[in-house]
Write a structure and sequence with these properties.
The complex is a heterodimer of chains A (about 110) and B (about 120).
Chain A: E1 4-7, E2 10-14, E3 19-25, E4 31-37, E5 43-49, E6 55-58, E7 61-66, E8 71-76, E9 85-93, E10 96-99, E11 103-108
Parallel strand pairs in A: 2-11
Antiparallel strand pairs in A: 1-3, 3-8, 4-5, 4-9, 6-7, 7-8, 9-10, 9-11
Chain B: E1 4-7, E2 10-13, E3 19-25, E4 32-38, E5 45-51, E6 57-58, E7 67-73, E8 76-81, E9 90-97, E10 106-107, E11 111-115
Parallel strand pairs in B: 2-11
Antiparallel strand pairs in B: 1-3, 3-8, 4-5, 4-9, 5-6, 7-8, 9-10, 9-11
Classes of the chains: A mainly beta (about 110), B mainly beta (about 120).
């Protein structure tokens, strides 16, 4: 059974600081996704990572994938309040997407 | 492109009512649609996968007689929560995909269902 584990599950941080969210998954997968969810809203796709060593960056967010370690990271650089949200990683297996529990990120001004 | 529309966005109804939620792909043909449920402060849990013209495949623990899914066309899938009870209150999100598993899923805006 595919399991996707994120940590931390909750993160409160000051603006301007850097931090990393980790996503481990238990079996091989073709794709790894990062999504953002604002309260009361649906998912916004941030990144799709397809291969070992893949790195993608958008603004203050950077995602990477290590398929050998079955680990993906989402790095936040110089956090700003607007990045406060819940971030989910998800893994594609057998045509299904399995989500982690999410990381609730709260950035203090 | 790749817009998925969900309707309604919010439903409040009495216990025992049946509620239908629509999921439409507006600018592409959705060969596969997925239905998720999300309880407050929890992750998305896949309920079922539906392929156009076929019966839906339900995940373990999801009652197929309670959550009726119809995917009669390439642009529309519906989820009907039959005889809804307060414990069915949740955020329901659909996603749609065209083609095979290497194609991305596009998510709808979700439906907030509240059963009184």
């Amino acid at each position: 059974e595919l399991k996707v584990e994120q940590n931390p599950l909750f993160l409160s941080m000051q603006e301007g600081k850097n931090y990393t969210i980790y996503c481990n998954y238990s079996t091989t997968s073709d794709r790894l996704y990062w999504y953002r969810q604002d309260p009361g809203k649906s998912l916004e796709s941030l990144f799709v990572l397809l291969s070992n060593g893949a790195v993608k960056q958008e603004g203050r967010l950077m995602a990477s994938l290590d398929t050998k370690a079955r680990l993906s990271t989402l790095h936040i650089t110089a956090a700003v309040h607007d990045l406060s949200a819940t971030y989910f990683c998800a893994v594609d297996r057998d045509d299904k997407i399995i989500f982690g529990k999410g990381t609730r990120l709260h950035i203090l001004p | 492109g790749a817009v998925v529309s969900q309707h309604p966005s919010r439903v409040i109804c009495k216990s025992g009512t049946s509620v239908k939620i629509e999921c439409r792909s507006l600018d592409f043909q959705a060969t596969t649609m997925f239905w998720y449920r999300q309880f407050p402060k929890q992750s998305l849990m896949l309920m079922a996968t539906s392929n156009e013209g076929s019966k839906a495949t339900y995940e373990q623990g999801v009652e197929k007689d309670k959550f009726l899914i119809n995917h009669a066309s390439l642009t529309l899938s519906t989820l009907t929560v039959t005889s809804a009870h307060p414990e069915d209150s949740s955020f329901y999100i659909c996603s749609a995909r065209t083609g095979g598993g290497n194609q991305p899923q596009h998510f709808g805006d979700g439906t907030r269902l509240s059963i009184l």
